[in-house]
Design brief:
414 residues; mainly beta; 3 helices; 38 strands; 35% strand
Length: 414
């Protein structure tokens, strides 16, 4: 492994840019050395940095062109932004991300382009930002967002779209007023993963903070937080909206809410289940909510063992209120009489039940017995032409000789 560094500003693909006179290899640590390096081709190196080392000076940055893939550890240094993307194309960075004080690791400034970030996003130090999105393009993050200090993992504004596939979690977070993911000014955030607020003893700070007409869509479970966190997992305000497809769960202890809005012009749409924590901890602190029940939606409350007296004791059982579409110990439609509506109109039976008159006398049908009988007229009035089954008694009798048929045969010979 060697240290390779730029000796002027220019394109990565230019061999004269580097102190070695050759392009860096996958075993090299690459330094900006105070210059601006444009990554104009696919690159795989050990790391890219803008720190100082020996005769290498601190500072400089990298610009990622469109249509290229960078695979490297991104190692930022305090007070210097590391890499920016301004292209109209689509590029990919394969790297776990961390941040340092007063700087941004990845800056996105594209109006129409897309940047794929593949790797976990760990906020590990004070006031830096892992990913800053300043324009209307799209950033796709595949990896977990893990927040452990303060300020932001991802901060976005200007109607950009952020797609995150992974969990968003706070861990050992004791600073107020900062959030792993913060969006504003018409941004859209789509998360496929769980939202887990594990921090404790803070007076502010959320997993997701959406402001100024922004939209959050979550497919996954949202947890209110660990004991004593006292803060909210998702907080929206100022004409923002959030939709959650998954469980909304309140953890035990002195927790904040899983979902919170600050004013009535913001709202949540949820499908449930909604699950309360111990001692009645409720996961919602909202002014306006739209509940769109699914077949597995329910409210779950904790019961106590104090016979209704105050204060409640430790919870021992749970009570569930289910949505109309939830079948609890109910038959399947094929086991219910055809046309019969049940489960509050959610289902209609499909089982065809014959009328008693269509069932032989004394045979059980529905809640009674059959009344059908075969009368003499039914037999004597049956047309001979209807007896057509080959080999049957009826067919044999139909063709048997009678006095009339025998007489007709004798008469034909006389």
């Amino acid at each position: 492994m060697a240290n390779v560094y730029a000796i002027k500003t220019g394109n990565w693909s230019d061999t004269t840019l580097w102190n070695t006179g050759t392009l860096p290899t996958s075993a090299d640590d690459v330094y900006a050395n105070g210059f601006t390096v444009t990554i104009d081709q696919d690159v795989t190196v050990q790391s890219i940095r803008n720190s100082a080392s020996g005769s290498i000076v601190v500072g400089g940055d990298y610009i990622l062109d469109g249509g290229v893939t960078l695979t490297a550890d991104l190692i930022p240094t305090a007070s210097y932004n590391l890499i920016s993307f301004t292209s109209s194309g689509t590029s990919t960075i394969n790297s776990d991300l961390t941040a340092q004080d007063s700087m941004t690791t990845v800056t996105f400034d594209s109006a129409t382009g897309a940047l794929n970030l593949v790797g976990n996003n760990t906020k590990g130090n004070n006031t830096g930002v892992c990913v800053r999105v300043n324009n209307t393009g799209t950033v796709n993050i595949v990896g977990d967002i893990i927040f452990s200090r303060r300020n932001y993992n991802v901060i976005a504004n200007n109607a950009s779209t952020i797609n995150i596939t992974g969990d968003i979690t706070t861990v050992d977070f004791n600073y107020s007023g900062q959030h792993p993911v913060s969006i504003s000014n018409g941004c859209t955030l789509n998360v496929t993963g769980n939202i887990v607020h594990n921090t404790q003893t803070v007076t502010a700070g959320r997993c997701i903070y959406a402001n100024h007409s922004s939209i959050v869509n979550v497919t996954g479970n949202v947890y209110s937080g660990a004991p004593d966190s006292r803060q909210n997992s998702i907080d929206i305000l100022n004409n923002s909206a959030c939709k959650v497809i998954g469980s909304i769960i309140s953890e035990s202890g002195d927790t904040g809410s899983a979902l919170k809005d600050d004013v009535t012009n913001s709202y949540f749409e949820i499908t449930g289940p909604i699950i309360c924590g111990e001692y009645g901890e409720f996961p919602l602190n909202v002014n306006k909510i739209f509940l769109i029940p699914q077949t597995d939606s329910y409210f779950e409350f904790r019961d106590d063992t104090n016979s209704g007296n105050l204060p409640p004791l430790a919870p021992s059982t749970t009570t569930r209120l289910v949505s109309p579409g939830t079948v609890v110990d109910s038959p399947s439609p094929e086991d219910v009489r055809k046309g019969t509506s049940y489960s509050l109109g959610t289902y209609t039976g499909t089982l065809a039940v014959p009328l008693p008159s269509q069932v032989a006398l004394g045979i059980a049908t529905d809640d009674t017995t059959g009344t059908g009988v075969l009368s003499a007229s039914d037999v004597w009035s049956e047309q001979v032409s209807n007896i057509t089954t080959a080999g049957s008694i009826g067919e044999r009798l139909k063709n048997a000789s009678t006095v009339e048929s025998t007489g007709d045969q004798l008469e034909s010979f006389l």
